[in-house]
Every structure is written in structure tokens, then in C-alpha cells.
Design goal:
Order of helices and strands: EEEEEEEH
Number of strands: 7
Oligomer: single chain
Shape: globular
Strand order of the largest sheet: 2-3-4-7-6-5
Strand content: over 45%
Length: about 90
């Protein structure tokens, strides 16, 4: 799902000031979702530190929360929690 500037997207990294975005993409797979292709208002690629918790907003609505992976994509938070408890039968959130 492509998120464009007409939806007023912005990214909050570790609770800091919002980063206005030109566009972003949410890629959904069977077991998880990824936030990727983050482009700032100047057209540059947004680089994020691995392990940081980020939230994507459209206006005031939070639409995605996740943790930055070593490859720069952002894995949705529920999948991150599931990976942390991989040896368990279920994860109690």
C-alpha cells in the first residue's frame, strides 16, 4: 500500500519530533507487514537506526508501529514480539 503526501504522513522515531514524509510504502506479507520506501519531503531517502521503534501517522491517526530492522525496513511491532518469543507456543501481549 503506497502512502502519499495527500494523506499527510509523518514518522516519529523513538518519540522525537515528527519527520514529514513525501511517501512511504506498507508491504504486507502472510506473517508480517513492513514499512519501507520512506521518502522525506525533499525527496531523499529516510535512513533509520536499526532497533529504533517508529510510528507512522496520517494526520493524527497512527497507522503503523514497528521496529527498524538491520536492512532499514521497519517490521510491524506484533511480528517483532512474535519473533522475540519464537520458542514459545504463543505470545502474551
Amino acid at each position: 500500500m503506497k502512502i502519499t503526501s495527500d494523506r499527510h504522513p509523518h514518522l516519529v522515531v523513538e518519540g522525537r519530533d515528527p519527520i514529514p514524509l513525501l511517501s512511504a510504502e506498507v508491504r504486507r506479507e502472510v506473517e508480517c507487514s513492513y514499512l519501507c520506501a520512506l521518502v522525506d519531503r525533499e525527496g531523499g531517502t529516510v535512513e533509520l537506526p536499526a532497533g529504533a521503534r517508529v510510528a507512522l501517522y496520517e494526520d493524527t491517526a497512527e497507522v503503523f508501529v514497528g521496529v527498524v530492522q538491520p536492512d532499514g525496513t521497519v517490521l510491524d511491532l506484533l511480528s517483532c514480539e512474535a519473533k522475540a518469543g519464537a520458542g514459545e507456543e504463543y505470545v502474551d501481549l
